[in-house]
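Table S2 (text version). Query chain:
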Amino acid sequence: MLANAGGPFLLSAAMETQQLREYVPVLLLGLVALTFAFGALGVSVLFGWRGHRNRIKDTAYECGMLPVGEGNTRMSVKFYLVAMLFILFDIEVVFLYPWAVIYKEMLRVPAMRNSILFSMICFLGVLFVGYLYALKKRAFDWKR
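Corresponding structure-token output:
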């Protein structure tokens, strides 16, 4: 009876060590990645050419032209608005494609027959309202 007293505890400890052993490859991969990263930095510091730098060599090369002006120019808000609209209408395809793939399959289920079409009509309706709002705000007008 004493031999069986620690049975469940020993079993759970053995399972924990087995589970921890499965993380060993992940830890080794992390160690290899860190070694490579810091090793590459160390080798570049040791063998880098520090003494042969001057102002001409440190300037940016712009297709043979001298760099004139500020490097960080301000972008128009229009650019960001167009980017956001592109993302909005691009995400639409992410939802439409899987729906179109399973549409015929879902029609076979009587409970889903009406709801799958109604849910997509609602989604497209909200998207169309957003499109009309963008048209009203002249978000697609490139000359403004």
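Notes on Table S2: Residues 76 and 142 are 12 Å apart (CA to CA). Residues 77-136 form one domain.
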